[in-house]
Model the fold of this input.
Amino acid sequence: MDEFINIAAHELRTPIQPILGLSEIVRNRLDGEQRECMDVVMRNARRLQRLTQNILDVAKIENHSLSLNKESI
Done:
């Protein structure tokens, strides 16, 4: 199950960067309602990006492979 989660998270994460990058390029060429629609696409792509990162973090925590750097503040 852990391997499946890890693979699925990586497979989801792979297309997110091009979606965000190309969406930004297209967004800059749009105006009005079209731009607002592209903002929705980008907002949801960032949300998916955070979700996949959280899944990977949870998998690391469960596998005891997440290292934390503690510092006094």
User: Anything to note?
Assistant: The chain has a mean pLDDT of 89. The first helix runs from residue 2 to 13. The helical segments are 2-13, 16-27, 32-62. The CA atoms of residues 6 and 71 lie 29 Å apart.
